[in-house]
């Protein structure tokens, strides 16, 4: 088990991914709230950061239980931090140090850099530089512009590198992480989906015992995998509830209930559409809409949990990007992008404890886990769909008529992707109903109707995404079908923004 202390870098999640690609389990914890018990961690990595060690109140956690006692790797800010606070000197760098660079010196015979070529490409992203190494340090790598690109502390398993080994553009980055974690720290490479299932099921069994658990199913990959893991662990004590919030895709409620019949799960469908739509009436602010949906969701769960006698746990299919994008709400160092309603806990009066078996893993890893427990490729291949559903794809306020329009548009788009064999090459797709009317002409009549934006993205984890170059013939067909068949829409546009700087959903 590897601990990654997060100083707020945009690349911290990538460190976790790279480590897991080595089949090693890792956990990210905010630097200002590190775990109290460090005994289970075999190695520690310090992330980069938007902060400067020379700024006011730089992140400065106490590493006395780590440095010199456990294998430690500082990356970028982490490297500067280890220098600045141990007798070295960090100053502003004279040359720009962003992007591609090449090593010009790699210390021979250094196990940490074994297999790294002497001119290996590395990725830099910093404005400070290490001018003087800390006490006891030996330089192990340089680039043309950065003399102290890598160093180690003699007599300790402490290493530091100015560049980012976690980005794909650092050609030997994964090798360096492997050298550090496997060769130096001796961490076992045993994190596979099968091992994850085994340890998670065992952990759920001992955590939950004979208690009853309720779980909100959404029909999506995450909650289905979470439910299946729990079912393996506690069997009939798992009570699944599938809530129709009135913001699902067309026919989704009945289709999904049918799909679960075959899985042996104990599922109850609850149609609460009217409650959700009432709560959303007149609400047009994205965060207010999410909060209203979150509130009603909790109320519906509260009502339902009372019907399950002695339910003491609420299980959720929260995955890692949900946690990280909402993390500042819980005191972490990165910024809140969107407050995903399914993160952030429950009101005290519910007295349910929360269990989230997928909290530390990414979507593609959830799919690998799902495959290893035998879920069908069709189910695992379903596109992600946000908890607040169409509410965050109808920009502005929500009415039943707008929901109907968007359901029809979405249905044509998604069915079209399936019919044209494009569905599986797209990571996520959907339609947005825009709060603008525009002028059109249909059968010699002037129209003044709604515009919809189609969005299809490719991604591996939802953290970054790019728009998909769908074939023009396909877009032409879908656009025609939408305008001809969906009353109230006279214009279709396609979203060609990547994430970042845009997000996948428009709200
Ligand atoms: P964004 O829009 O932040 O979305 O690029 C990234 C992924 O998260 C989904 N998403 C949500 N999921 N509750 C959810 O359960 C939410 O409030 C929410 N907002 C976005 C989005 O569909 C995409 O897969």
Question: Mind explaining what this structure looks like?
Answer:
The protein is α/β, with parallel strands linked by helices. The protein folds into three domains: 2-184, 3-Layer(aba) Sandwich (Rossmann fold); 193-380, Rossmann fold, CATH 3.40.50.620; 399-494, GMP Synthetase, Chain A, domain 3 (2-Layer Sandwich), CATH 3.30.300.10. 30% of the residues lie in helices and 25% in strands. The chain has 13 helices and 18 strands. The strands form three sheets. Strands 2-1-3-4-9-8-7-5-6 form a nine-stranded mixed sheet, sandwiched between helices. Strands 12-11-10-13-14 form a five-stranded parallel sheet, with helices on both faces. Helix 6 links the parallel strand 11 and strand 12. Helix 4 (193-208) crosses helix 5 (221-234), helix 4 crosses helix 10 and helix 5 (221-234) packs across helix 10 (363-372). One of its GO terms (molecular function) is ATP binding. InterPro entries: Class_I_gatase-like, GATASE, GMP_synth_C, GMP_synth_GATase, GMP_synthase, GMPS_ATP_PPase_dom, NAD/GMP_synthase, Rossmann-like_a/b/a_fold. Catalyzes the synthesis of GMP from XMP. Residues 191-382 form the GMPS ATP-PPase domain. The active site is at 76 (nucleophile), 164, 166.
What's the gist of this structure?
With about 500 residues, the protein is an alpha/beta fold. It contains 13 helices and 18 strands.
Any chance you could write out the topology, listing elements then pairs?
Elements (H helix, E strand, L loop, with lengths): L1 E5 L5 H10 L4 E5 L12 E4 L25 E4 L1 H8 L4 E18 L14 E12 L4 E7 L6 E4 L4 E4 L11 H12 L8 H16 L3 E6 L3 H14 L3 E7 L7 H10 L5 E5 L1 H8 L5 H22 L3 E5 L4 H6 L27 E3 L7 H10 L4 H4 L19 H20 L8 E15 L2 E14 L7 E2 L4 H14 L3 E6 L13
Parallel strand pairs: 1-2, 1-3, 3-4, 4-9, 10-11, 10-13, 11-12, 13-14, 16-18
Antiparallel strand pairs: 5-6, 5-7, 7-8, 8-9, 15-16, 16-17
The chain binds xanthosine-5'-monophosphate.
